[in-house]
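Workshop exercise sheet. Pairs work together: one partner reads the sequence aloud, the other fills in the structure field after running the prediction. Swap roles for the next sheet.
Pair: D.N. / O.F.
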Amino acid sequence: MTELLIGAQDHLHALLDFMGAGGAVMWALAALCVAFWTLVFERLHYMRRVFPQWAGERRRAWFELEREPGRWQHAVRAAWLAQARQHLLGPLRLPRVLVALYPLLGLLGTVSGMVAVFDVLALSGTGNPRGMAAGVWQATLPTMAGMVLAISGLFSLARLERNARRALEQLADQLRHD
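Structure field:
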């Protein structure tokens, strides 16, 4: 048990060193990452648990509406499909914005790291390669992290949007007027 705790402490220290090496931008990227994945998991929960119940209620109501004469059912169907589109695709706007912010924050980290390199150059000239290397490391780390987060975010958003569109198509097919 103590070995497990020591291993966890080592991993925590390594993570804190990694985050500290990238500067404040890495902490901002980490916060956005937590927010993004919280939103993604919320959407997954919604699409798997909440939306099927909502769609089931609409299907049951649709079968009742089909029995009544009139052409107004098409307006009801269109309104329900618009609501479904808003429920499924509307909340994906914020995660899309967060994915767009990842590389921008990474570039901000690049700029701040290069400023550190130029500070070292201004103070000690080219005679301090260790100081320059630390600045270059600080410059490249947030850029890499921003790109990795953006790529993983794009893949997860594409999957969420594909699942949402598939659910919309299924609902539209189930609410057809025979």
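Discussion prompt: The radius of gyration is 25 Å. What would you look at next?
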